[in-house]
Amino acid sequence: MATEVILPRLGQGMEAGTIVRWLKSEGDAVEKGEPLFELDTDKVTQEVEAEASGVLLKIAVAEGEVPVGKTVAFIGSEGEDVPEPQAEAAPAPLEEKVPGPAAAVEPVAPAPVETSNGRVKASPLARRLAREKGLDLQAIRGTGPEGRIVAEDVEHAEVGAPAPAPAVAARVAEVESVPLTNIRKTIARRLTEAWQIPVFQLQASADMTRANALVARLRERDPDVRVTVTDVLTKVAAHALMRHREVNAEFTEEAVLLHPNANIGIAVAAPQGLIVPVIRGAERLSLAEIAAARADIVGRARDNKLRAEDLEGGTFTISNLGMYAVESFTAVLNPPQAAIVAVGATEDRVVPAGGGDVVIRPMLTLTATFDHRAGDGAPAAAFLQTLKESLEDPGLAL
Question: Which of 156, 244, 259, 372 does the annotation list as catalytic?
Answer without folding.
Answer: 372
